[in-house]
Structures are given as structure tokens and as C-alpha cells.
């Protein structure tokens, strides 16, 4: 007899997309050599777009969304993974073209799985999730570009969101002076300071103004989750404001500004392992708790609407055992 499990399934009827929690069996899962009992998942901005249908993230219907999952191996055809192993998976088209993390069970390719480093629980792995993993990749990119705590202030945009919250905590622990830019500078000021922001600025100064190419130099580096005019005003990973880039080449050719693109989805395996190990050592887990809200699978459609509207704070974890 097959085991039944709960999942959020997104279906499409003509142009109308809908999401509902339903019961599935193992035969509904896609191909893969490892079956995982999913303990936790998370709602990222991209998941919000997928569940609401506000952007064409899902490439196959019906599909279980969820670009992240963490749990324990149930069955494995790969000798490197054994029953009970703690694993984490983010990206690789999970929740886009392959059934994702918004279910109690997943069948995936073992090449996509990363053994969870000691010191991080499956719940904490999802409090980090793609957003936190991407924040780590951004910090590693700044380091590779030679930005040290002595170089000057580092700006984080979309500060109260997932990428922003983890980026602030990481940069603070690593000794950087962090300037947080938020549209919610007033209401979330205390939260951002608790995470480690040294200064908070109103995001409208960056997002509403047309960029002046050679404005005063203010920051040694930036982690940008917002894009569009904001990105034209700062020297890179998100598009919460827009995917355009209304800028000129002047800052690049006259100030040596470097724009580094960061892709979490297809990041190579060595880089993933390095990023997860850095997260285990460089992220203050008490701050991670402060930025995390726990929800149940049934709450996901409502939270998806909220994240797309820019109304969630920090990170949202889905407890699949609830
Ligand atoms: P969140 O929704 O948690 O955070 C985004 C934040 O951006 C919001 O909290 C808000 O911050 C700000 N924001 C939202 N809408 C607007 C707007 N219209 N104009 C200006 N600011 C806005 O999302 P995530 O942190 O999960 O993701 C952030 C971005 O990074 C997304 O675009 C996502 O797609 C992208 N991303 C890219 C990855 C990659 O691999 N390159 C991986 C992960 C995420 P505040 O209220 O503080 O102003």
C-alpha cells in the first residue's frame, strides 16, 4: 500500500491558476533516487509569485511549489545517502519544474541534496532557506571583490525582507558597518537594529529618485534585493521593485563600480556546500529566531499574497509536522 501525504498543489484551468491543500500518494511524485520526509519548508518571494500566479514561475502543471525543503531521507537508491540523514535542498528548478517543498514528502535527484551541516536544525535550515543562502552568496561575492569591514559602510536594500534580514545579520557578525534601506524604516527600525543595522535610511530616497550617475560616494558595497531605480542608485540579487535597470555606464567606468549578479538556483555544488558551512559558522542563530515566523501548510496561500505585497517581515517557515 502507498503512503498518503499532504501537499499544496497548484493547478491551471485555461488561464486560471489555483492552489489548494490536498492528499497525494508516492505515485504522484516525480522521478528521483531519494525520497525525503519533508519537515520544514519556507515561503520566499519567488514562492509568493508561484503560488499567486503573479509571475510565470511554475513551468509544469499541476505542481507542488516550494523552492526549498529540509528533512530526513526516507528511502535512497544512492549509497551516499541513508535513511534518517538530514538534508537540505534549494533551487535546481524545485517548485518550478519539479514537485517542491510544500508537501510532507518529496522525491528528488540526489545530486541536488546537500547534507545539512552539524549545528543547523532542519527548522533553522528553512529559516535560512533560499533567501538566507542567497544573502550568504552576496556576502561571499563582496568578500571576493575585496570589500572588508575596513573598506567602509555596506548598504542592504529591501532590509526588512528575507534576503535583507539575513544579509544584515551576517554582515554585522562579520564586523561590517551596515546601513539598512527599508520602505518600513519607521515601523521596522527597532527590528532592523536588533538584527545589527547601524543606520537605517528610508528606501524612498533610493527607489523613487531617478539615479544621478555620479552622485556622492556613500557605500563601499551593497546587497541589493530590490532592483530597478534602487539598483541604479546603489552598486546586486533581487527584483522586488522591478527587473529593469535604469542606469548609465558612468559609475562603472569612472568609479570602478562592479555589479555582481548572484544566482542561487544553479549555484555549483562546491559553492553551495561552502555557503551552507559559512552559514553554520557566521550566522547568529538567535537573530535567525528573531526574524522567523512559523506557519502551517494551510496558511501558505494567504502568506504568498502578503510576501508579494511586501508585507511579510524576515523569514517565514512552514512546519510540515504541524
Ligand atoms: P521579501 O519579500 O522577503 O523581501 C523583499 C523586500 O524588498 C521587502 O520586504 C521590501 O523591503 C522590499 N520591497 C518589496 N517590494 C518593493 C518595491 N516595490 N519597491 C521597493 N522595495 C520593495 O523577498 P526575498 O527576500 O525572499 O527576495 C528578495 C528579492 O531577491 C526578490 O526579488 C527575489 O526574487 C530575489 N531573490 C533572488 C535570488 C537569486 O538567486 N538571485 C534568490 C532569492 C531571492 P522593505 O519593506 O524593508 O523596504
Class per helix and strand makeup: alpha/beta
Instruction: Give the SSE order as H and E letters.
Output: EEEHEEEEHEHEHEHEHHHHEHE
Amount of beta strand: 15-25%
Biggest sheet descriptor: 7 strands, mixed
- Bound chemical compounds: NADPH dihydro-nicotinamide-adenine-dinucleotide phosphate
- What is the overall number of helices? 10
Distance between the termini: 24 Å
Q: Uncertain runs with pLDDT below 50, 5 residues or more? A: none
Shape: globular
Mean model confidence by pLDDT? 91
Q: Rounded to an integer, what's the Rg over CA atoms?
A: 20 Å
Number of strands: 13
Fraction of helical residues: 25-40%
Structure characterization notes:
The protein has helices at 45-52, 122-144, 162-173, 189-195, 204-207, 228-233, 250-254, 269-282, 285-290, 300-308; strands at 4-13, 16-25, 34-42, 68-76, 86-90, 105-108, 114-115, 154-157, 178-182, 199-202, 221-223, 292-295, 315-319. It is 29% helix and 23% strand. The protein is globular. Helix 1 packs across helix 10, helix 2 packs across helix 3 and helix 2 (122-144) crosses helix 8. Strand 9, helix 4 (189-195) and strand 10 form a beta-alpha-beta unit. The protein is an alpha/beta fold. The protein is built from 10 helices and 13 strands. The mean pLDDT is 91. The strands form 3 sheets. Strands 3, 4, 5, 6, 7, 12 and 13 form a 7-stranded mixed beta sheet that branches. Strands 10-9-8-11 form a 4-stranded parallel beta sheet. Strands 1-2 form a two-stranded antiparallel ribbon. It binds NADPH dihydro-nicotinamide-adenine-dinucleotide phosphate (NDP). NADPH dihydro-nicotinamide-adenine-dinucleotide phosphate binds next to helix 1, helix 2 and helix 3.
Amino acid at each position: 500500500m502507498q503512503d498518503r501525504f499532504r501537499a499544496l498543489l497548484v493547478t491551471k484551468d485555461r488561464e486560471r491558476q489555483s492552489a489548494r491543500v490536498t492528499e497525494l500518494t508516492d505515485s504522484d511524485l516525480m522521478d528521483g533516487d531519494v525520497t525525503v520526509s519533508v519537515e520544514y519548508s519556507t515561503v520566499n518571494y519567488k514562492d509568493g509569485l508561484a503560488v499567486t500566479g503573479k509571475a510565470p514561475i511554475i513551468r509544469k502543471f499541476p505542481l507542488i511549489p516550494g523552492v526549498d525543503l529540509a528533512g530526513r531521507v526516507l528511502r535512497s537508491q544512492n549509497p551516499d545517502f541513508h535513511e534518517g540523514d538530514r538534508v537540505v535542498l534549494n533551487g535546481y528548478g524545485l517548485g518550478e519544474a519539479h514537485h517542491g517543498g510544500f508537501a510532507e514528502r518529496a522525491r528528488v535527484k540526489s545530486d541536488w541534496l546537500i547534507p545539512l551541516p552539524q549545528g543547523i536544525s532542519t527548522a533553522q535550515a528553512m529559516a535560512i532557506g533560499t533567501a538566507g543562502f542567497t544573502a550568504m552568496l552576496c556576502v561571499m561575492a563582496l568578500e571576493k571583490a575585496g570589500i572588508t569591514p575596513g573598506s567602509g559602510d555596506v548598504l542592504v536594500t529591501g532590509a526588512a525582507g528575507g534576503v535583507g534580514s539575513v544579509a544584515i545579520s551576517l554582515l554585522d557578525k562579520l564586523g561590517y558597518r551596515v546601513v539598512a534601506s527599508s520602505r518600513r524604516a519607521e515601523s521596522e527600525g527597532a527590528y532592523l537594529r536588533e538584527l545589527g543595522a547601524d543606520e537605517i535610511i528610508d528606501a524612498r530616497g533610493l527607489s523613487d529618485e531617478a539615479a544621478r550617475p555620479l552622485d556622492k560616494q556613500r557605500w563601499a558595497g551593497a546587497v541589493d534585493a530590490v532592483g530597478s531605480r534602487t539598483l541604479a542608485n546603489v552598486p546586486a540579487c533581487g527584483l522586488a521593485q522591478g527587473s529593469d535597470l535604469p542606469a548609465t555606464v558612468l559609475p562603472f567606468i569612472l568609479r570602478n563600480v562592479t555589479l555582481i549578479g548572484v544566482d542561487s538556483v544553479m549555484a555549483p555544488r562546491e559553492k553551495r556546500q561552502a555557503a551552507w558551512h559559512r552559514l553554520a559558522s557566521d550566522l547568529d542563530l538567535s537573530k535567525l529566531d528573531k526574524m522567523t515566523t512559523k506557519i502551517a501548510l494551510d496558511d501558505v496561500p494567504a502568506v504568498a499574497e502578503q510576501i508579494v505585497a511586501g508585507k511579510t517581515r524576515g523569514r517565514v517557515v512552514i512546519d510540515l509536522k504541524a
